[in-house]
Each structure stands twice: as structure tokens, then as C-alpha cells.
Amino acid sequence: MKDKRWVFHSEIEPFKATEGVERRVLAYNDGLMCVENKFEEGAVGSLHSHPHTQITYVISGEFEFEIEGVKKVVQAGDSMLKTDAVIHGCVCLKAGILLDIFTPMRADFI
What we know:
The protein has a single domain (13-109), classed as Jelly Rolls (Sandwich). The chain is built from no helices and eight strands. It has strands spanning 15-18, 21-29, 32-39, 44-48, 53-67, 70-75, 79-82, 88-103. Strands 1, 2, 3, 4, 5, 6, 7 and 8 form an eight-stranded antiparallel β-sheet that branches. The relative contact order is 0.27.
């Protein structure tokens, strides 16, 4: 969906990111990327880091996030900032959807 002005959710095939997590890469260009991640209860986003700044917005569900060794439970309406190279991950406590914004775009997701 690179450089597309209109991106329709119904036209994007989900990709199995990990066990219990479906990813959809939404609108993006070289400098910015929007990604939806649908989690089943109990699914894990393993601890990792990357050279991108990331904002995560919780659309639905409940998640325990760990960012730089600090754990907090977040739910719909909450958001988190993860600057480049920060170690982070999550566990889904109640099935839900996360919206991730990356800068620059994640070439490894394409």
C-alpha cells in the first residue's frame, strides 16, 4: 500500500506475524507506516528492539506491555511511545487490536 492515498481494510490480506497475531500493513510511505495487529488472548509480542520510533495505540482489548523493563497494563484509548532501540514487548490479556505507527517505515514488514 506504499504511497496509496486510499487504503481499504477489506482489501488487505492479514499476515500471520506470530502465533495468535495477525498483521495488516496499512498506508505508508518511506518515512511513515501504519500497521494493525490483531491479538488473540494469550498471544505474545516477544521482547525486541528496532531502529524505528514507534507509537502504539490500543484500539481494543487489554495488554501487559513491557518497555525498558517497566511493565504496565493498557487498554482501549491508551498509547505508548517507543523510541528507536528501546526493548519492548507485550502479552495480550484480553483479545484486541493494536495500531502501530512507525517512522521510518518498516521495510522488513513488506
